[in-house]
Design brief:
about 60 residues; mainly alpha; 2 helices
Length: about 60
Amino acid sequence: MANTNPLQFIQQVRAEVSKVVWPTRREVLLTTVMVFAMATLAAVFFFIVDQIIRFGLTSLLGFFG
C-alpha cells in the first residue's frame, strides 16, 4: 500500500471530484417524476393482480366450502 501525504491526498480528491458530471435540476426533476410514475404503475399492477388472485381463491374456497 502506497503512503500518500495528506496534501497529495487532498489534491487527488479534488482532481477526482472535478471530473464528476453533476445532473442538472431538470434531470433530477425528470428522474424523480419517472420514479414516482413507475412506482405508481407497479402499485396499481400489483393491486389488480392481488384482487384477481383474491377473487379466484374466494371463488375456489366458496365452491368447496
